[in-house]
Amino acid sequence: MPAGGRAGSLKDPDVAELFFKDDPEKLFSDLREIGHGSFGAVYFARDIRNSEVVAIKKMSYSGKQSNEKWQDIIKEVRFLQKLRHPNTIQYRGCYLREHTAWLVMEYCLGSASDLLEVHKKPLQEVEIAAVTHGALQGLAYLHSHNMIHRDVKAGNILLSEPGLVKLGDFGSASIMAPANSFVGTPYWMAPEVILAMDEGQYDGKVDVWSLGITCIELAERKPPLFNMNAMSALYHIAQNESPVLQSGHWSEYFRNFVDSCLQKIPQDRPTSEVLLKHRFVLRERPPTVIMDLIQRTKDAVRELDNLQYRKMKKILFQEAPNGPAGRTPGP
After folding, report:
1. Closest C-alpha to 160, from 321, 329, 318, 22
2. CA atoms of 4 and 68, how far apart (whole Å)
3. CB atoms < 10 A from the CB of 17, how many?
4. 8 Å CB contact between 80 and 91
5. Using one digit for the tens of pLDDT, what is the confidence trace for 51-70?
6. Could you confirm whether the keyword Nucleotide-binding appears in this record (predicted)?
7. What is residue 170's predicted lDDT score, i.e. its pLDDT?
8. What is the CB neighbour count within 10 angstroms for residue 277?
């Protein structure tokens, strides 16, 4: 039996200390689902003690593979506990209730992927530079502590109300570099992760590759090869030339940044630390870029048709105590 023992067991004091003993149902109110994945769902919620808005990721550890699910929860909590950086999501604690872990984190308005969905067009280059810079600072912090995110994509780059960019979703992260397991989301995966099944280890440079793919995603609304099935895409990434930005209207700085991130051979690819000195992210830009982008997105959400509005109204949840303001609810 691996460390952490049977699902839900708190006999090991090192495991027990990862969780608060309180009943989360008594501490958090107004839960509303804002997203979900293979692990479970994420909710908007309010902390009854101080009225603070938080995000709660609920992860079940019952049913099939309950022990593996429990190990995943322990691993993610241990990872989140280590994070101390303005560009990584702030962890508030974890509670257990009815075979479900409640991971409580700071609330973010939405992801960079949500922005693409709301606006139905690519971001402006200055916005991509600001989002990329924030994500890159978070990655440089992780890499300096021998951590790898392993699932960098627009959907895991979050924006918070004061205009900060945050890396989120550490469910795939590795605490020790180098790593050698096949983890991530296919279209954003670095060649050496795909080849890790045969060839061995990789390090934080896999996140640099994924950031380069994310830049293309923000510039073109989808990552390269997205029209292929996942298996074909994996083969293509491993065997073919690196993708490039398609349109000619982007600056030379942006093109060069993406090309640097997408060097096929990891030794030729710069580290996150080195890329923080790149002109693309250091070029002069208004300090309000992210705040303006958030405001532009909120305004656009209010104009969406009812179906899209229901999907994206989470971006407005923080605006008023009773939920989104400034729009007459549709049916």
Report:
1. 318
2. 10
3. 9
4. yes
5. 999 999 999 998 888 888 89
6. yes
7. 82
8. 9
Question: Which residue type occupies 121?
Answer: K
Confidence of residue 188 (pLDDT cuts 50, 70, 90): very high
Residue with tokens 């992927």: 113
DSSP 273-292: HHHTT-HHHHS---TTHHHH
Residue of 104, 128, 105, 317 whose CA lies nearest to 215: 128
One-letter amino acid identity for 240? N
Pair of tokens at residue 156: 């895991």
How long a stretch of residues is the chain?
331
Distances in whole angstroms, Cα of residue 112 to Cα of each of 15, 31, 76, 123, 167: 34, 23, 22, 9, 11
Q: Is there a contact between 159 and 294 (Cβ–Cβ < 8 Å)?
A: yes
Give residue for tokens 């000195």: 277
Provide CB contacts within 8 A for 30, sequence distance 6+: 44, 45, 46
Q: What is the pLDDT of residue 174?
A: 80
The two structure tokens encoding residue 256:
């060069």
On whether 58 is known to bind a ligand per the annotation, the reply is yes
Architecture of the domain defined by 110-282: Orthogonal Bundle (1.10)
Q: What's this model's pTM, rounded to 2 decimal places? A: 0.91
* Residue ranges of domains in the chain: 16-106, 110-282
Closest by alpha carbon to 32, among 328, 321, 331? 321
In the numeric block, which tokens belong to residue 113? 């992927």
Quick: pLDDT tens for 272-311.
Answer: 999 999 999 999 999 999 999 999 999 999 999 898 998 8
Domain 16-106 is found in CATH 3.30.70.1140: no
> Is 85 in contact with 93 (CB distance < 8 Å)?
no
